Task: structure prediction
Amino acid sequence: MSVTPDEFRAFFGSFPTPVSVVTTVDTDGTPRGFTCSAVTSVSVDPPLLLVCLDRSARSLGPLLSAGAFVVNMLADGAQDVARVFASRSERKFADVRWQPSAAAGGAPVLSDLAVGYAECTVTRSVQAGDHWIVIGRVEGAEVFPRPPVLHQRGVFGAWRPGELTTTTG
Result:
């Protein structure tokens, strides 16, 4: 028995996930980007991670053509940026400061809005269902002492370890 798309979304929406903006540049140097919660580590040696994006995403072609991207893990306070990059707006970078990545072909680095970023070159891409899995080798990375933003059931929140309760047993 298979689950419905709504059941599948409900399952993955039931636990908090980090929020990132994945960026790249088009062939003419135009910055592109999208909000992505499907990011995970693949390997430490070599350092690999993966991102997943919808096969209809406008950033897919530019990302694959550029062969490079940056994963910007968003910090608390960047919720509005996450919403803008989740939209189909043509002006996603209008109010966002960024620097071109030296290690990822000029893809935008959003260091003012991130808890960290990873500059990647594409090593492999695989179509899987209605998405593409893009594996990138991390060529550069930096982290900042800020709390990350999380997303759960359509709501953003910050992770504050001192406010969490733990149980044993």
In short: The CA atoms of residues 22 and 92 lie 12 Å apart.
